[in-house]
Request: fold
Amino acid sequence: MNDLENENIRLSDRLSQLSDDELVRIAKLQLPYVTTAYEAIFHRYHQKLLQVCFRYLKSAEEAEETVSDTLLIVFNKLNQFEERASFKTWLYRIAHNQALTRLRKKQAEYVELDEALSEIDHDSAKGVEGHNTEQQQLNKLLDMLTIEERSIVVFRMTGNLEFAEISQVLDLKLSAVKMRYKRTLEKMAAAAKHI
Reply:
């Protein structure tokens, strides 16, 4: 390794130790010509965003495209981020909106809902040697939820967001998010008995 590569690794390590607020401030100063702080943000959130988007879209390829779109929006609009909410909340709101847009397009492509449901049932019936894995069961349970219910559960369980952050992302009152989360878990538990 040459000296420049060593320096880049040290800089990357230092940036990864910074808070989101500090990284955002540096990235706002650097972008679009220097991307080191933005890259640190990218690496911090890329995998989590992929997991969240996959839960919405059930396609690794579409999740990857959605995350790419989200991070491109962050790259282009970071200077417009006003810090009224946390950066994490702003980022997840963008990802949420991008995933919903893709979901709507995807649903519009289905000729009829019945066809889509029969296709899902057919695919899950194929299962690995006829056995449902935990992942398949979770996907079935998530399919039974409304978009709002799914969003709350996915952000809480996969995104590890606090209820206050979820309320900001979804633009709902904190008490409504907590109540809907509780009811959704009860709904999933009841449905799980029948899977």
